[in-house]
Amino acid sequence: MKICNPLITILLALNIVGCGDTQKEKESYFSFDENAMKPLYQATDKVDFTLLNNENKIIDSIAYFVDGKRMASVKGNGKFTLDLNGKKLGYQNIKALVYFQNDTVSTKTRVEVASGIVPKLLKYTVLNTYDHDVNAFTEGFEFYRDTLIESTGTPQGYKGYFAKIDHKTGKTFKRVDLDPQYFGEGITVIHDKIYQLTWQNATGFIYDANTLKLIKKFPYGKKVEGWGMTNDGQNIYHSDGTEKIWTMNPETQKLTDFINVYTNDSKIKSVNELEWINGKIYGNIWQKDAIAVINPKTGAVEAVLDLSALRAKVTNKEAEVLNGIAFNKKTNTLFVTGKNWNKMFEIKVSE
Q1: pLDDT value for 303
Q2: What are the beta bridge partners of residue 86?
Q3: Spans of the chain, pLDDT less than 70
Q4: What pLDDT, on the 0 to 100 scale, is given for residue 351?
Q5: What are the backbone angles phi and psi of residue 36, rounded to the nearest 5°?
Q6: Which domains are delineated in the chain?
Q7: CA 84 – CA 98 distance, rounded (Å)
Q8: What is the spatial distance between Cα 217 and Cα 349, in angstroms, rounded to a whole number?
Q9: Cα separations (Å) of 161 from 70, 135, 149, 178, 239?
Q10: β-pairing, 120-121 with 301-306?
Q11: Could you give the angle at the alpha carbon of 130 between the alpha carbons of 128 and 131, nearest 5°?
């Protein structure tokens, strides 16, 4: 039995201390039975939730919320079923608001949702092999009007830059060096403007695609890193080194939404250089000699392109990871390379 001391009320003026259980004690009344939950669900699953009533309280009703949105209300300790079909991949935050004995308390849990699609393995044919600047620590790779644009980082004392390049000869048409404080990352061209990310400066640049003159700098607006970049003609997509790919408004440079990249059984972290190809996002995965084909609406990895055999053809010892995907719309072929690779490969992809 709890005894209230009237002196406490006097000493604290109007800050009255209740005689009932504290809020922390109330929160222990109910909890999700996490032992009955799986560590990873697929987007085709349905999940049943009921609460553990640890103190045998009389429950009037429970309201269930998913990522802040009210989904259902059940009488008593009734079952709530969450259909994961159409839900965002990644973590879904579940909250139960419990109404009981003229009181209310909430409890929370979360479930991790993977894709319901098993990725298929793509095939490819090497059409051509070209020289690639062995000093180029490739971060961005994209064609613009038949001209290859490449953005590089600045490891080992090299100066970061981006340049217009003749992909067949390796000749540089025009180059823009970055201030040494910036580590250059992904690039993309939309509306005749080149957008470029930097790694950990939370700063991007916009250039005129024809003259390469700087138009403006812009902040990311969120605490994320800059990795890869591509666009679909309307929106820009920005990877940040995690499983997330952000959607960016090219006019405002605001990061408006994101997808989480998953296969059917795992989260895909370290999504790197990106390329938009026929309605899909092709993404390098850092430290992997493979490209993931990603659904831009859901984040599901629908296919994988294993390029480890190309890595074996690179002869320089300083070669780093595969990173660089440029799609040539006229030839319907991909040009791929890596950080400090001495070769670039033109390939044709098929199923």
Answers
A1: 98
A2: none
A3: 1-20, 156-158
A4: 85
A5: -90, 0
A6: 15-114 (2.60.40.10), 120-350 (2.130.10.10)
A7: 23
A8: 36
A9: 49, 11, 11, 5, 20
A10: parallel
A11: 165
